[in-house]
Inverse folding.
């Protein structure tokens, strides 16, 4: 392959969590008096760390979210994960192909370490990600679209940014990868290709990914 490290986003790329989490987020914000549709949640928050929710609500309304917002949101999301979460179709096969080819990979997610662990355990992906290959926005000062998380993952994995490729499905994630000086491929299962400018290519089925990396 052309790369020494494949960095996967998590939500929407490895686990099919975006529909669940954005439905819950939209409903919770609406419940708190900040009417938000599912489409608006996807547009504004998909691929972002939870601090972006706080920042945008404060910017738009001048009001702060409750102190227990994060805890309540995570409790509701994790409960939904336990009931319904699945991995994205084709992900184990892709990870198996990378492993067989000796190509290192990791995950760099805007979600918390707990969110990543819960999702991977529920979907069986925990068997594919060894200790030291899971990175969260919790590990850095700024989440996506800042490049910090991807640069941190590359440093910890011992690979120069120019030798890394990122797999992303959100505009914020693509912007972060480009800012990090990395190639990036856009997964279009939920996000139209035209909303992922600057990518090296797009794909709609996970089975297409290995062919793009050679």
């Amino acid at each position: 392959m052309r790369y020494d490290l494949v960095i996967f986003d998590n939500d929407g790329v490895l686990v099919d969590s975006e529909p669940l989490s954005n439905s819950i987020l939209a409903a919770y914000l609406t419940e708190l008096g900040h009417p938000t549709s599912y489409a608006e949640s996807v547009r504004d928050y998909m691929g972002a760390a939870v601090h972006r929710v706080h920042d945008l609500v404060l910017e738009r309304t001048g009001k702060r979210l409750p102190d227990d917002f994060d805890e309540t949101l995570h409790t509701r999301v994790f409960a939904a994960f336990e009931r319904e979460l699945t991995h994205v179709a084709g992900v184990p096969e892709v990870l198996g192909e990378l492993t067989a080819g000796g190509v290192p990979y990791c995950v760099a997610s805007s979600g918390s370490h707990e969110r990543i662990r819960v999702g991977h355990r529920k979907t069986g992906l925990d068997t594919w990600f060894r200790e030291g290959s899971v990175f969260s926005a919790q590990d850095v000062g700024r989440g996506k679209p800042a490049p910090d998380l991807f640069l941190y993952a590359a440093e910890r994995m011992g690979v120069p940014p120019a030798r890394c490729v990122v797999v992303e499905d959100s505009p914020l994630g693509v912007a972060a990868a480009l800012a990090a000086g990395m190639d990036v491929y856009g997964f279009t299962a939920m996000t139209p290709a035209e909303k992922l400018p600057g990518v090296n290519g797009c794909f709609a089925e996970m089975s297409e990914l290995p062919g793009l990396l050679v």
